[in-house]
Design goal:
Blueprint (H helix, E strand, L loop, with lengths): L1 H37 L19 E7 L4 E6 L4 H6 L1 E3 L11 E5 L17 E6 L2 E13 L14 E8 L9 E9 L12
Parallel strand pairs: 2-3, 4-7
Antiparallel strand pairs: 1-2, 1-5, 3-4, 5-6, 6-8, 7-8
Length: 194
């Protein structure tokens, strides 16, 4: 009986720790989402120093209205950053920039709605300079080692990457890729940050 009592207390403790961990992740995600929603808002005119963002910093927001997807974009795609939002892949272009913008996210959190993405859907990237509009061209499924999906194309593009299949349990064997092109290099709703 004594062993069962210890086992019961151990299981309760493990369960409470798991619930606590999930609550902490949920609070972090909500805070990151709140920060991302404020990006692009007009701010009072003042000089703000340009400082390179750290790995977990929120640098923008991605929206796909047709999928009700809205997620923060963090400055990197390491484990902690992907718990807080969608990660910008270092070495790829910034929103609205020349080249290919690469964003990665988890299939079971922020990028879960991508399973319903279709050609011609609008994708918005919002950062401190304004809102950039992209249109989905195609999707593909590739092996994890196919990094050519981030190659620079003849026009500015956006590449979204998540694991595939969406319902796979564990480390998924493939990657789901969304390709989109930039409609205009000029953002709309430019904020007052310079």
């Amino acid at each position: 009986m004594r062993v069962l009592g210890y086992a019961e207390r151990l299981l309760w403790t493990c369960g409470l720790l798991c619930v606590g961990y999930c609550l902490v992740l949920g609070v972090q995600a909500k805070e990151t989402q709140r920060l991302a929603e404020r990006i692009g808002e007009p701010l009072p005119a003042r000089i703000v120093p340009d400082v390179a963002p750290a790995a977990g910093d929120v640098i923008g927001r991605i929206e796909i209205p047709a999928l009700a997807l809205s997620a923060p974009i963090t400055a990197d795609y390491d484990k902690d950053s992907l718990h807080r939002g969608v990660g910008h892949i270092p070495g790829t272009a910034v929103p609205g920039g020349l080249g290919t913008v690469g964003l990665a996210g988890h299939r079971d959190s922020f990028f879960r709605p991508l399973r319903r993405v279709a050609a011609k859907m609008e994708v918005r990237l919002i950062d401190k300079s304004g809102t950039y509009h992209y249109v989905v061209d195609s999707t593909e499924i590739v092996s994890p080692d196919k990094v050519g999906v981030l190659n620079i194309a003849s026009r500015p593009e956006l590449t979204l990457i998540t694991c595939f299949p969406f319902d796979y349990v564990g480390a998924a064997p493939e990657r789901f890729i969304v390709h989109a092109h930039l409609l205009s290099a000029s953002p709309d709703g430019v904020s007052a940050i310079h």
